[in-house]
User: Fold these one by one.
Assistant:
Number 1:
Amino acid sequence: MSYKAPVDDMSFLLKNVFDVQQQFDGISQYQDFDYDLYNAVLEEGAKFAENILYPLNRDGDEEGCQHEGHDVTTPKGFKEAYQQFCEGGWQGINGDPEYGGQGLPKALHVLVEEMLYASNTSFTLYPSLTAGACSALAAHGSDVLKQTYLENMQSGVWSGSMCLTEPHSGSDLGILKSKAEPNEDGSYKISGTKIFITGGEHDMADNIIHLVLARLPDAPKGPRGISLFLVPKFMVNDDGSLGERNPVFCGSIEHKMGIKASSTCVLNFDEATGYLIGEPHRGLACMFTMMNKERLSIALQGVGLADVSYQIARQYAEERIQGRSSREGKQGASILEHADVRRMLLSMRSVTEINRALAVYLGMNIDLDEHATDIETKQKAARRVALLTPIAKAFFTDSGFENCNHGIQVLGGHGYVREWGLEQFARDARIAQIYEGTNGIQAQDLVVRKVCADKGAAITELFDDISETIKQSSDSDFKHVGVSLEKHLSVVKELVSVLLQQNEEQGAAMQGGAVEFLNAVAYVIGGWLWLKQLLASNALTELEQKRKLAASEFYYDHLMPRIEGYAQSIKNGYHLTFALDDELV
Amino acid sequence: MSYKAPVDDMSFLLKNVFDVQQQFDGISQYQDFDYDLYNAVLEEGAKFAENILYPLNRDGDEEGCQHEGHDVTTPKGFKEAYQQFCEGGWQGINGDPEYGGQGLPKALHVLVEEMLYASNTSFTLYPSLTAGACSALAAHGSDVLKQTYLENMQSGVWSGSMCLTEPHSGSDLGILKSKAEPNEDGSYKISGTKIFITGGEHDMADNIIHLVLARLPDAPKGPRGISLFLVPKFMVNDDGSLGERNPVFCGSIEHKMGIKASSTCVLNFDEATGYLIGEPHRGLACMFTMMNKERLSIALQGVGLADVSYQIARQYAEERIQGRSSREGKQGASILEHADVRRMLLSMRSVTEINRALAVYLGMNIDLDEHATDIETKQKAARRVALLTPIAKAFFTDSGFENCNHGIQVLGGHGYVREWGLEQFARDARIAQIYEGTNGIQAQDLVVRKVCADKGAAITELFDDISETIKQSSDSDFKHVGVSLEKHLSVVKELVSVLLQQNEEQGAAMQGGAVEFLNAVAYVIGGWLWLKQLLASNALTELEQKRKLAASEFYYDHLMPRIEGYAQSIKNGYHLTFALDDELV
């Protein structure tokens, strides 16, 4: 069973739904780009994903990573694939052109990321972490650091890792203990233990550049006393060649539910030499400038895995003859004819296609935030990115996991055995709900920082844009869709008021409904993105138009009603739950 | 982290909520039993589950079953545990007393099953399949077959398997191909390949008795041409000793997402000697007499795994210090203080406690169906069992998987690594949504055979009982709960009308909403069982009363609202989805 990257749908989003080049008007970095170039990148990305990464996926899961001494070995074929990945220039496609990056827009990059995650999530995590490290370094590193490290990282010759978590310090980074002591030459001695470090050690790149959070001796307690350091695995000589091994060693790797070919390391820093990135005690802020991109990357893990699950389940359903067709009443039909199988497949596709659309929209806003010359555009984009990132991260990965499980269910017993690969997609998808901030943390970020903090201003601004699309639809063939969306939108608008009021009256108890609120908002945004796609669908072939229509109807009829359940629950409030004595929970 | 079987809650259900002995009044087989005996059984079961099975669970998952030649080896410790299981008399607790079974009620047996699944699902599947085979043999086997096999099976000295699925024939048994050719002595030669055979081969019992579906030479096509045969691994001599090896061999075992210590075998029957059970061509009917019990058993896998996940997650949450307490605003609180963690834990507990209640209720109805002397009681019980079995199987296992995933989420990254065991519970739980009839098949069974076939009569009878409880609550402290339940009940009553009408007008398209309908009904039944528990809660300690109240409030405020989402989706209908050309799905 094969995976085909959905290049046509991706092109449709970039050009017809969002017309990103139009949005990028005036941004010099993107002026020489056009849709032909974007399509060529997508086509090449598809080839790499389908032909190089996908065939390594199952075996990589079976073999996993091996840890011996200080070394970690990746599964057979990974090293060669990584070589090709670097040679193809994939590491730096969204990277800073000043240091060898290709400077292509995030709106395009997210689509490439989707393909990579779909075809081989474990593999893709290595370059994803490198890209995150590059972003932080590019934004906050000194020129010397950038000159020494960034080009080799953006080419993938050296990879990167992000060292945040410690055994006692996960979601709460404020209590981390790793120490940084100044050396005389301006560098630092970094000591401490970091856990859950993706790509912390492996055998694919010549060097690994760790970005590490640690405390300076004079650091205030809590999150405002954390600084960010660059700690290379091998020291870099003045001529750029590799020098001594820096004492940062992999103590063990985790044995996990999934992403088994991605090394998840315990790293021990034993007075390893490091270099400060950005200001002292401002490490968390530096880290968070790249966190939006990292969260969006992980969000795409959910989209990619849901899509590959859909594709395999769809192929299986067509070939599996079982039972009487409930459509035509005849014996010996494929299970694609069964109402419940159709429900699961359309559920998968209809969510995946709006998640993909939101990824492009969010990527485009990251681009506008970074590059727009017009200050209003830039600021609006920044607000939109802040608002939508936690939604994308949590919703894409929650719905991704749900849809991977639909995929298993379509295959029945065959979905549960390893041979078919569906269960691997679900296992690989499960972690995305946890790392880069659990989905509970995302929801809390949304309601506390992104909605209550500005009293609903940014989300109202989004709702206004949704209303604008509804207005546009009023003299189209999709007027009825707009009418339905309007109804759901008003429910979610009311929820914003409810949340703000609960926040006033009940304080943090309100956060009990955060996950449901995030979902309710996400389903309305999905409805909006379906409407936007329908309004642009005359650019599609007749078959593709019909497929879009089918998926959007399913979404409106059967998934948007979930909003009603979330709304009732949120209105009931979590004050009772919150007030309970611990022993009653 | 330890598992404690919830013995007190189980006693409360048996005695105070359902007063099963009162219900069993007049059933001679149960007259000598009392609550002291039931409690003693539960206490002993708890010891066995907690001390013998639970410690083997994680290592069993790591080691898995090994296949070599024709043999399958279970993980270290399983054989000894199985020995103790048999010596404790656990195999036959619900078995036919005429052949060494203890004849204890199913209402009690389900609770023991929950403990066993919670502590070690892989192990528990072996005796569960044996119990299923015993039921079918007891109900349909000839006296000679019963005398030869049943006592050794009910003691567990010999185990059983159920051989239904073939490579091309899963949910659709009507197309199976295995053949049975008559021998001159009245036995048959069985040939064919069976897959997904749980406990089809292992090293724990002296003999394995396979119940096998196959076709006689003169069999009509389809499901009415299938007969049931008993095929022993070792032939049994006239004196009861074991004779020759029968040619039924394990060709391979599956590598699965979970239940790795449960052997899932490909069995090749090569003219193996078998004996007809029941009438020729009536094999499916024979099989289905025990299917309700098997489905309920698998349902309990969902309950047990959700409960053990809750217990571990609850312990972890109390010990894990992380972040500011959103309850008390102070730094350094346990994550149990976080609103979202409370939401997940209460979600787990509030569903588990109503699923457990429904299991007892359903078990009690199985007992009444089998043993009640009053024909009306018996027939009502039979209708209730038919109606509730698919609901229990699908809802317990779907919510079980959801809740195991909540458990992972509470632990964050630690939930995803194998060390803590939470991810194993989720992997082990995932199969329960698939085997013994996928949950989609359960939902189809519910809407087609159990609701539409009698035009809603049986489900209306259930709704009347629910209304009766609401009436009882009207002069209690829980009147408001009854009022809320009434409201949800009316929504679900309307859904029955909607379904019946869709069935008339749209035919099989209606089945697209089957899973949602099943869930909506299940949540209302849950609300009923919460009300019943509250009405009986004065028998509890003050702390336990408060815990019941907390969980029931959570359930009503935050889980029952889901009904509204299902209702809207069902009312929108699946006729559009159903009518789509295949290429649009």
Number 2:
Amino acid sequence: MAKIPYRFYLSEEDLPKQWYNLRADMKEQPDPLINPGTMQPAVESDLYPVFCEKLAHQEMDGETRYFDIPEPVQEMYRIYRPSPLIRAYNLEKALDTPAKIYYKFEGNNTSGSHKLNSAIAQVYYAKEQGLTSLTTETGAGQWGTALSEASSYFDIPLTVYMVKVSYEQKPFRKAVMQVFDGKVMPSPSETTDIGRKILAENPGTTGSLGCAISEAVETAVKTEGCRYVLGSVLNQVLLHQSIIGLESKTAMEILGEYPDIVIGCAGGGSNLGGLIAPFMQDKLTGKADPRIIAVEPASCPSLTRGRYAYDFCDTGKITPMAKMYTLGSGFIPSANHAGGLRYHGMSPILSKLYHDGYMEATSVEQTRVFEAAVYFAKKETILPAPESAHAIRAAMDEALRCKETGEAKTILFGLTGTGYFDMTAYSAYLEGRMNDYIPSDEDLQKGFDSLPKIPGIEE
Amino acid sequence: MAKIPYRFYLSEEDLPKQWYNLRADMKEQPDPLINPGTMQPAVESDLYPVFCEKLAHQEMDGETRYFDIPEPVQEMYRIYRPSPLIRAYNLEKALDTPAKIYYKFEGNNTSGSHKLNSAIAQVYYAKEQGLTSLTTETGAGQWGTALSEASSYFDIPLTVYMVKVSYEQKPFRKAVMQVFDGKVMPSPSETTDIGRKILAENPGTTGSLGCAISEAVETAVKTEGCRYVLGSVLNQVLLHQSIIGLESKTAMEILGEYPDIVIGCAGGGSNLGGLIAPFMQDKLTGKADPRIIAVEPASCPSLTRGRYAYDFCDTGKITPMAKMYTLGSGFIPSANHAGGLRYHGMSPILSKLYHDGYMEATSVEQTRVFEAAVYFAKKETILPAPESAHAIRAAMDEALRCKETGEAKTILFGLTGTGYFDMTAYSAYLEGRMNDYIPSDEDLQKGFDSLPKIPGIEE
């Protein structure tokens, strides 16, 4: 074919019709969820009070390799997908690297990130089951926005518990959710037991993602016809997000390319798990052997400095416990951390793959992340989300390494979203007001002290 | 072909290689610019102190039908173009209309609007001429952002005079420009004669677009190697923006479609003039007869209630005078007007076409605009810029008319950009705090009183 274009879009016919379930090809499955009530491995029906049934099934099913994407979900995907696979010619030129750099850009939808891919699926299944309302939490606001869009589209009411500091600092994010009829509550709130408890103990708290999750789960469990939906960490979310990787792989095949290195930012793992899915499949089945790199913030280093242990997914300790790399649900990143990816744990699937040596991980300080973000914006004319810029940083570092060695490696990274709502952080960086924070071993120990003790299970 | 997809992208090979100059097919040319120094028709060299030479030539050339798009401009276009032509299946369904609705979406780039199309061209020609800096003004910030992107890409310093009220209310817009190295000054500023004069007369002023233009022009004229660039109104801008219409027309041809109605929002005319260009060509040359509709805000109604007269393009009255529909350079829209499109005049090309009966115009109140914006966002999952929502409103009204009459008309409208930086206005609308403002005849008369008197020329 002729010169590879800057932006490559699959045709509507080439869009994936099925999601890929990475667990089906894993040599060993992630350890099972533990029901905190019984301290026994959870079964599918244990999840029904929290998740709708089809999603509970997807959460537990480690065998089915492909799940059909329901037609109404495909229909909504087609409104904004395919996302472009972009060849970073200008970045390559600016870095003077022999490497070929590609990125899959998920920011071209109003939610501004890849989160919409799973939001649509989760809302659709809830609607199909006849549920009458949904709850969720949001930190930076991307997930809440995505879910508001999907809920509005499928016409089901949504309450979003938004971490209070974001609620107050990001009124525009809140307003976008309100355009899509999302009901936005600052968390902690007076509407839940856990919210009231936290407020009583610490009236001045600015909230945390773990606390917002607890409030959303409590409301879902106590409200008739209501369920909770979560934008990351879960197996079901990685399943839905596999669309990112499947599209990327098909597009690269058409272009005659295959990545030597696949790089994604890692918070709870939703983007990373989706992007790498079909490439990890090749690795697990021996078809190819790309390097796969998770990039996390140095201020919230669950893979690179966390423990591989059972932990709660929420601060309120009411969700099932998962075996994952975690800093402890009691770990709270420094308030000066602006770069997203603040979650204490990591997807159990990704944790297992990392533990078993299929994946690398690296951490970067936020000033280096923003340096990469600004550099990238100028060259590629896309203003990246700080989260995405973690992957940019690592991709640039790999490309510069290629410059040293003269290797023309093919690098693929995930550009998960845009940074329009992160300008406060950009301004802090540009004006020299941004600092790095790296937790001390003592800081981390405080988080580890919050890890649950599970009878009969040792690390 | 199979069912028309939601999003249709031209392949890179189908992208236009030339801009189309609408004037070449007009039966009568727009009246010439008047040099305010001599009160005589301006010649190309009169413009050299303000514009670089190639742009001055494009401004004055009414004969050349097609201009080659320089390769470096095409190269930067390819980073974010083609923009998608979207079939509004969900909007059609929600409105229950037999009409087919298409929109050309120009918001998928970091500047968030179509403005980038002309910014790239103008910066390229300035660089090519060896100029060493540029100035411009920005109101809502879209143009300033676009120009910052282009200036950063071609590595030429830029100063943006930003209307003070926007500078203060939209710190995030300012920050985006700073990411791209734009130097942003609140206008009026102390850096120019006109700025100091206005501040002395009215220290509390929040500025106006006309004043910011004056400051930018003054700085360009007084600074060695510096020129002024403008994002709308000018003939050269409409030429560059013809890429919108050319892509739209090619895409519709491939899909086997042709619009019965073409609708665009109208401020200075940059988007409208670009979108309609090839369809107006068909109309001027008798090949087809689509209805062409300009939509403007009821609070700044230059086409529907303005005068067709010679006027200055800026408040400072230092630019050449143009014959156009205008409310007078002294007209200032109500501060409660949130919907963009605040400019007092209208592109001379569009003014002439409207005057000669080739185009319709309508005006809409901003609450009806935001009603359409929110409705559209929910159905099409794109959060529109308020400016773009003027076109949405008119397109919805036409589609609803089709529902009444049963006609299956094909409607094309321009979705010029996204509304991420307009959430203050969205919140005002959602919370019922938005009012409409329609200027009284007395209000308009004050603006008309500012129109220049030109010896020997009567309307």
Number 3:
Amino acid sequence: MQRNGVMECSVCHSKVVAGTPRSISRAYDKHKSKISSKQRVLTFLLVSGDCVLVGLQPILVFMCKVDGKFQFSPISVNFLTEVTKVFFAMIMLMIESRKQKVGEKSLLSVSTFVQAARNNVLLAIPALLYAINNYLKFIMQLYFNPSTVKMLSNLKVLVIAVLLKFIMRRRFSIIQWEALALLLIGISVNQLRSMPEGTKTFGLPVTAIAYIYTLIFVTVPSFASVYNEYALKSQFDTNIYLQNVFLYGYGAIFNLLGILGTVIFQGPESFDILRGHSRATFFLICNNAAQGILSSFFFKYADTILKKYSSTVATIFTGLASAAFLGHTLTINFLLGISIVFISMHQFFSPLAKVKDDKPAGTLELGDAQKHSHPILLL
Amino acid sequence: MQRNGVMECSVCHSKVVAGTPRSISRAYDKHKSKISSKQRVLTFLLVSGDCVLVGLQPILVFMCKVDGKFQFSPISVNFLTEVTKVFFAMIMLMIESRKQKVGEKSLLSVSTFVQAARNNVLLAIPALLYAINNYLKFIMQLYFNPSTVKMLSNLKVLVIAVLLKFIMRRRFSIIQWEALALLLIGISVNQLRSMPEGTKTFGLPVTAIAYIYTLIFVTVPSFASVYNEYALKSQFDTNIYLQNVFLYGYGAIFNLLGILGTVIFQGPESFDILRGHSRATFFLICNNAAQGILSSFFFKYADTILKKYSSTVATIFTGLASAAFLGHTLTINFLLGISIVFISMHQFFSPLAKVKDDKPAGTLELGDAQKHSHPILLL
């Protein structure tokens, strides 16, 4: 007989206090809330940083236009962004190395660099995939109109979740899968208003080649993000700026190879990568670079799904801000869409939706971080 | 120390097998699954019956038209439907009374009838509210276009949930509230396609009188349904067909008063309630009546929310059937809308979403039914 956590010994009939499930769960809850408050600060910093950078983007793009046109070749922007990211990461690495205590292994020593390069060779894979993705974006526009491309991009969130499940062994509850589906649906409902009249019916292309391109277009960037998360987390001991140097170094190399490829096919004028750039384009490239560096923080210290939600929230804030300050009307699609996105977000991160397990799914990455006794907030 | 459910007595050190939380929860799960399997059969019968009747509706409406027009006055349909329901309930009552065992109190005795009439006087309230609602539908069309009326009707599901919370003391988890919001959003997304071009922006009316009409239009039928559920359940011992005789008897009286009112204001020609009726309109009225009787089963043995979901599923099936058999194209709005509705439905009825309580929220009504030792399936 067990009553109020007190059991009676069936042999000597004395009372024994049992560790009731409730008292065990309370102790665990305390431990959990400690972790999740740190995770919440990290999440807040990452998401608000992302919102600021994504919010600045359209303003910078607008400033870069001369007579409504871009003077520079879009292909050069990718390469210059990668180079900027490498420089930024190296500057941060120098700042970090000055803060190092005496006796710590120097971040700038050749041996650290060589060992990190050897350990982080996996980062070449996401770098290659990102470079391929930049080219795919151009090809896709030959087969689909821009709104269809936007719609299809939404499918990425589900592909990312499936890849996270298999590559990162993340477990999602059924409510979380539904939340991800709702995120996809919410963004789509919001985008419906921008669909041209003719595409009102479900205008999916029917040619086989278009299906294959869609599959590649959705899978490649998703795989890049998830593999990036895997590569960054698997070498948790390597400083994140050092990892960035390799990731974006590889990226710069692959983009340069791409430019050389176009030079061979289209003639030498596409080699002039600095043509048409101004101070405005410099800021645009810096913003792009900062977004890239911030993503690596998302991937290493949080996860790809949080990055997706963050971008969506940033888009919503941009929409609300342009309604408040520029007097744009909020369409019913926008209102229905953001309601779905906010419900989705609440459900995905709700403790109710967490997979029932010793280690809650949401704090898995942080658990890893603590195992490696690393500081969580390097921002 | 407790290990594998075996505890050691701290006094005599003998081993005691503890009732582990898992074994207790297993026993409870068995008890729970017994209830919910009966509830599932009931739900299936109610929802599939509802789908058939709602699916037949547009076909019957089409058959009732002569040269694309209705020959009968729509106001007469409500009255004739109420009268049909009373007749149907009385026939069922006679069939039930024949099945009665010797010694049971006769369903058809005057004393049973008088006592039930006294106990179920509350049913006059939903009957009056339903009658008022039939008039409001006409008034609303003066202030809003039909698609706006349809959109506003969706708000009913949230009002119903709030009323259920306060009148029936039902408890909903946060996931269930979100599921209800998603149901509302899903139906709205589906309806967006049928919005005329001009109403693409959020075209809510701004006049104060329109707001008041909207409030009444949404609250009256919601209050009618929830109060109907309350009245039917509170007199659980009264046979449901006897309750129906009173509910629809009151309904017929209120509708007749309405007809008399229009006779006074518009002249005697609106009194000819049988004008323009044919065999097709007879079937339409029978279908309406059957839907009404079925609702009373929803309200008494399940609940108003299940009725709402059921109607939505019926609409979806009608849409899918018309796509499959009549070759209509499925719009992207329809596909997004039904995805939201199905996720909402799964979340609302998911055991994960249930309020943490000794008695799970979904089986509350069945618990009541068993307490009164009544047969569950009277269909």
